[in-house]
Amino acid sequence: MVSSQILVGGDGTETTLEDGGLRLVDRSARTEIPLAVVQEARTAGGQHVEIVLTDSAVHRVDGGNPTAATAFVTALTAALTARRDPAGSARVTVTPLAPPEEAEEVKYHPKYRRRQVVALGLFLAYVGYTVWVGVARGGEEVVRPVAAAIPLAIGGALLFFAVHVTLVHFALKRRGITVPASFDFKTKDGAAWYKFTDADGVERSGRGKNRGPVARVSYDPEDPRDYSFDLSGGSTLRRTLPFALGALPLLAGGAFLALLPFLPV
Predict the structure, then answer these.
(1) What is the pTM of this model?
(2) Strand (E) positions, 64-186?
(3) What is the spatial order of strands in the sheet that 48-53 belongs to?
(4) Which one of 11, 189, 196, 245 is most buried, counting C-beta atoms within 10 A?
(5) What digits encode the pLDDT tens for the residues 106-124?
């Protein structure tokens, strides 16, 4: 019997050894390798594992630490069959978690362009303000807006996330399409990945809480990258409120520090 093991990499990858073979999961894809096409396994650099297939292809994964990597190689070596299949990579199955067309869609979607333009405009405006402080109040005062940029950036990022989740919530309420989603796999942080098929027949993946073998997911047909497994107002509020509350003091403190050169002492 195969000694089941899960190799958790420091880069977030997971490599699972089971009776049926190996399953490699990273942020972009799930790769399934039958044991019959594995020629050998070896450690590389201490904490990395190299899985060599019968056609000489190599899959290199992060083992997290040398002890785990060595134990995984030992278990995998013991599980290898006496008869190997020379087909090698031809029997390896790779399932993308984010289809290439979706990545292209995100890159060129109009709302992402607008966000980039707004972010660039705010950055240039703040650089201009910092220069103006140096001209109007002296070079020594520039340190204040420069230091203020840190809490302003963090607070802005937190507020952006809260606003984004809220806008997605209302967009899904207005035009979202709800479809069944089947459980796919679970990651080390406890998140469950589900797969679903949109109205165009494209299979997509969604990350959420474990809701059993079948769940319901609502996605935005204009941008299927936006989806939710729970459209209740309470769920959205619980997600956004901590970020909004965390953003406000950072933004207030950053704004005060940035304006301090012009405030009466």
Answers:
(1) 0.57
(2) 93-96, 177-186
(3) 38-44, 48-53, 58-62
(4) 196
(5) 455 677 788 889 999 999 9
